[in-house]
């Protein structure tokens, strides 16, 4: 399933960042010439493919080596797994280029088919007619008699790279230039510490609902909620993925109480991290209100009232979709509602912090070198760190009560009180930042 998801992800990633993204100058120089693109842009593709192959082999090699050292796998089977994943990385590189070269409808349909075939692996874990099925067979061979033919099949699947010249020739000059300029600007924003701006540059412009009116009538709160919902409908795929992430986050926080002590931390931290990322797709109104917070508001309202009104939709989305994942125990749902409100508060704090102070980029010489980058990282990741430490830690405390007692019972009551205190502190910091924006 992981291999199938990687293949589908490679297809979808090609539309945003393909394997052939030279600099704008090289793109203009190489693509604008009369030379065939199979020769001019082959080098960037080979470089991207090599990085992909090294990443896949390194990740798989570490896992397989751990199993060999632990005595759970034979060395011959481990070598076959690594070789098979090397061949699979060649197939991934080809699918990545397919995503960049062919139309979006074709790549989305193919990604759906790949995901379905990965999900329909039979009960015994084998599907011998797909590359991800061959990966499953090789992985099963680690603890069983060695199976060599899937590694050979994966090596032969890399022959799909013979179609690379035709795919390179099918690349459109305008799309290559658009990707090149976008990723050049993203690189510049990341180097200056503006991670929020870099993530915003990754967002495609809306293509749906552009003709639908967004009226500003009636009470301000109702009008803003209506406008935020209409704006969310302009990004259906993004909203769907974020909502699914919230459902998964609710489920992870709910199952924390059933996990052993060592695993509970993993599920809790994964759940709150996923919740923080998932609710972010519903926070466009918050970010817009914070970016436009000035002493003279366009709507004749203070920055606090505008940001507070735009926080309604994220809270409702987080509670609704997260509660679907936490269904089954009323106490789990109640705890998730508290977590959802706290995470949205942290999102408000993050949206209102404004640009990074230039003083954080000043060099800090130490015996081990310049550590000013730590200031920039702390500035960018402060909201996520708060969520991980407070929400994640308290979720583990709630789960420590065990199944049937999680939520607001037993230790959950104390966790709820601590979460309320932390929420009050976050709200005070957010209010301070909002007032600073208004000035």
TrEMBL record:
The chain crosses the membrane at residues 46-66, 78-98, 147-171, 235-256, 262-283, 304-327, 333-352, 373-398, 410-431. Keywords: Membrane, Transmembrane, Transmembrane helix. This is Uncharacterized protein. It comes from Cryobacterium flavum.
């Amino acid at each position: 399933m992981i291999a199938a998801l990687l293949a589908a992800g490679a297809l979808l990633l090609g539309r945003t960042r393909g394997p052939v993204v030279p600099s704008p100058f090289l793109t203009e120089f190489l693509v604008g010439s009369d030379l065939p693109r199979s020769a001019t842009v082959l080098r960037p593709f080979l470089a991207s493919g090599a990085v992909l192959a090294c990443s896949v082999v390194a990740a798989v090699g570490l896992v397989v080596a751990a199993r060999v050292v632990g005595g759970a796998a034979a060395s011959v089977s481990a070598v076959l797994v690594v070789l098979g994943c090397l061949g699979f990385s060649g197939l991934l590189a080809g699918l990545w280029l397919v995503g960049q070269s062919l139309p979006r409808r074709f790549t989305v349909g193919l990604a759906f088919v790949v995901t379905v075939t990965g999900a329909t692996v039979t009960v015994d874990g084998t599907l011998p007619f797909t590359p991800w099925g061959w990966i499953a067979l090789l992985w099963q061979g680690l603890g069983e008699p060695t199976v060599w033919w899937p590694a050979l099949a994966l090596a032969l699947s890399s022959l799909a790279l013979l179609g690379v010249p035709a795919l390179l020739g099918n690349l459109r000059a305008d799309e290559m230039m658009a990707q090149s300029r976008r990723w050049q600007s993203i690189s510049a924003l990341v180097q200056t510490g503006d991670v929020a701006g870099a993530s915003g540059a990754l967002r495609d412009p809306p293509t749906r609902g552009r003709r639908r009116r967004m009226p500003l009538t009636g009470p301000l709160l109702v009008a803003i909620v209506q406008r935020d919902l209409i704006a969310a409908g302009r990004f259906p795929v993004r909203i769907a993925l974020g909502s699914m992430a919230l459902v998964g986050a609710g489920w992870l926080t709910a199952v924390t109480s059933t996990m052993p002590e060592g695993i509970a931390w993993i599920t809790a931290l994964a759940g709150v991290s996923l919740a923080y990322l998932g609710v972010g797709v519903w926070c466009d109104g918050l970010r817009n209100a914070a970016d436009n917070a000035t002493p003279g508001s366009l709507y004749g309202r203070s920055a606090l009232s505008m940001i507070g009104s735009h926080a309604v939709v994220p809270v409702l989305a987080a509670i609704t979709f997260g509660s679907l994942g936490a269904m089954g125990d009323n106490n789990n749902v109640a705890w998730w509602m508290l977590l959802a409100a706290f995470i949205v508060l942290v999102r408000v704090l993050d949206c209102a912090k404004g640009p990074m102070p230039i003083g954080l980029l000043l060099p800090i010489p130490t015996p081990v070198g310049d550590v000013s980058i730590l200031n920039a990282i702390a500035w960018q990741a402060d909201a996520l760190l708060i969520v991980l430490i407070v929400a994640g830690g308290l979720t583990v405390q709630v789960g420590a009560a065990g199944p049937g007692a999680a939520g607001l019972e037993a230790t959950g009551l104390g966790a709820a009180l601590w979460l309320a205190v932390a929420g009050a502190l976050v709200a005070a910091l957010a209010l301070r930042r909002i007032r600073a924006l208004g000035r």
